Amino acid sequence: MSERAAADSSKASNLRVNTERLWQSLMRLAEIGGTEKGGVRRLALTDEDREGRDLFVSWCRAAGLTVSIDRMGNIFARRAGTDDSLPPVVTGSHLDTQPTGGKFDGAYGVLAGLEVIRTLNDHGLRTRAPIEVAMWTNEEGSRFAPAMVASGVYAGIFDEDYALSRADVDGKTMGEELARIGYAGDRPTGGRPFRALLECHIEQGPVLESAGNTIGVVQGAQAQRWYETTLTGQEAHAGTTPMANRHDALLGAARLVQAVNRIAGEHAPGVATVGMIQSSPNSRNTIPGHVFLTVDLRHPEDAALSAMDKALRAALADLAGEIGLEAAIEEILYIPPIRFDPTCVGAVAAAAEKLGLPHQPIVSGAGHDACNISKVAPTGMIFVPCAAGLSHNEAESATAADLAAGTDILLHAILDLAEPA
Predict the structure, then answer these.
(1) Helix axes 400-418, 342-355, angle to 10 degrees
(2) Of 247, 319, 399, 410, which shows the fewest CB atoms inside 10 Å?
(3) Which positions ≥6 away from 98 have C-beta within 8 Å?
(4) 10 CB contacts (<8 Å, ≥6 apart)?
(5) Is 0.90 topped by the overall pTM?
(6) Of 197, 190, 286, which is closest to residue 234 (Cα–Cα)?
(7) CA-to-CA distance for 403 and 399, rounded, in angstroms?
(8) Distance CA 266, CA 226 (A)
């Protein structure tokens, strides 16, 4: 090895990201859609989402990156490699939030990728393979269902026309809103190989904090199924209809919520959630005749998730019969258990060992864009702790030190996969 190569290798091995710069970037982004309780409301393809995207793009261009946007609004910011014909090593996450979201869910993964680029620029280090920072559209699925739809199109899980036609509660489609905010790109969605993809994320659970570990080496993610359910009964006067004569759709929904929670308890460690309910006609003195609700089932084992699915459908049929309701259920998302690429997982573990950071293997309870991309590229994830495991909440919190540690792991794993030039 030449003296220069040895010096570059030593420089790379001792490299750390700029903790303060990463934190300040996160705090600046959190101002966009910031809430009084200290969280963030930046729903997909709203004006706040556009403002967040604009800020990210401006930072990428200031770092010398080439920005491109595909037809799903996914943003890719590219740092050329010394052999730019190689597929890129990609990192990133999303900028959209839940209606009552926090500062770090998704945003951390995007800005961790940018901080890696900034650090490489600071030290004049090049990689053989290109590096790209990705920002995926509508990961949360809180405005447009299903979740992770744009990375799903990239991975061939969803058809592009289907995804662009997804509508919010006001009937506005993803395609219309992408055009409105100026992020309907012209680049085809997908069909382009990645050398690898790594995503940094807060854990969104209590495991790392409870164990006293800084880094979660993510092995994969549990299986999940999403449903949209409708219960149709009969609207009637609340004061004149005897209880025995009622076909109350909201009563059916209440019993379904109970059943969903019971099913999760019977299939531990599975989890189940009713997250959205819309009752019609939503009048205080009319018996509800129609209810729409969503169900989210998850389990690490696919067979157990299938058993939960069967139990859900049976419970729905039973309660509909008891109350005299019509019931319909549609599965809109199915994600089988994910097992991440051994090379990517190994790169994360090796970086944690190299930097002397306490770490452990972990399985994600949440879905992430990386789960979709794992179908078409070698993929891995890095978790860092969040306070009390709380996420999808305005009180979501993580320390600057832990966020920087996870980004240090990302930096060294990317250098491993993209090869220092």
Answers:
(1) 120
(2) 399
(3) 41, 105, 140, 142, 392
(4) none
(5) no
(6) 286
(7) 6
(8) 19
